[in-house]
Amino acid sequence: MRGQMEQRAPPPEEAEGKYMTILEHLEELRRRLFMGALWVVIGLALSAAFGDRIIEFLRQPAEAHQANFKLQYIEPFEFVMTYFRVSLLGGLIFGMPMVVYQLLMFVSPGLTRQERRWVWGTVLGASLLFLGGCAFAYYVALPPALKFLLQFGRDIAEPNIRIGSYVDFVVRLIFWTGVSFEAPLVITYLARFRIVHWRQLLRWWRLAVVGAFVLAAIVTPSIDPVTQSLVAGPLIALYFLGVGLAWAVEPRDKPRPIPEQPASPA
């Protein structure tokens, strides 16, 4: 009786390799997405509490090129929507590490034990790259872009910019530059899972250069070549960094043993 009541615990390898039904996968995905969204909402609430300071912070690069720079809104809900957009950006930055962690934990059952050790390193690397891209956009790419936009044609017309338009292109530049800085991490995982090869990536360097300038033209709000080059340059450098990481993490095939030759008859 006692032997029937006792349940034998499965070994760790068996527990980790447990199969899940489609409904269980969907439930797991729903739970992971909910946790990531919860952190984004928490970040949104915290950003909303300091929304005025964040907007003032985003306005400083323009004030450096125009002393009497003022923003205006001409629609009743324009400032409210702008306030929400800024708070949402803060929420995405705050919740991004948790979103990446939850997505990696969702796919972790399909990874090997060694690959699961990369989860925390990936979360840290993705967070640092994203924050580095946001800082680069704000401190390096945004000032010359605003200088070009605010001084071009100033002898003909005085700039009188709506707050919604200003915050829209500043937030777009900061967010998408941060996303584009994740390229080395994406390339690393593609190489790790043998989707691409580092030699193949190296042969594509010309396409990478053209793609970096195309992406810079999409992300940057101005059309001057100086600003676009400031954004495209780091993207090209990050691509080659990704190639180096791909070479480092790409699985090496073990050399096949040489079959023994049968002894020749004497």
How would you describe this structure to a colleague?
The chain is an all-alpha fold and 266 residues long. The protein is built from 12 helices and no strands. The chain has helices spanning 2-5, 12-16, 22-49, 51-63, 78-107, 113-116, 118-151, 163-180, 183-192, 198-203, 205-219, 225-249. Residues 1-17 have low confidence and may be disordered.
Order of helices and strands: HHHHHHHHHHHH
Q: Alpha-carbon distance between the termini?
A: 68 Å
Helix content class:
over 70%
User: Major sheet: size, sense and barrel closure?
Assistant: none
How many extended strands? 0
Provide the fold topology:
Layout: H1 2-5, H2 12-16, H3 22-49, H4 51-63, H5 78-107, H6 113-116, H7 118-151, H8 163-180, H9 183-192, H10 198-203, H11 205-219, H12 225-249
Structure, briefly:
The protein is mainly alpha-helical and 266 residues long. It has helices at residues 2-5, 12-16, 22-49, 51-63, 78-107, 113-116, 118-151, 163-180, 183-192, 198-203, 205-219, 225-249.
Any key phrases for this structure?
about 270 residues; single chain; disordered N terminus; mainly alpha; 12 helices
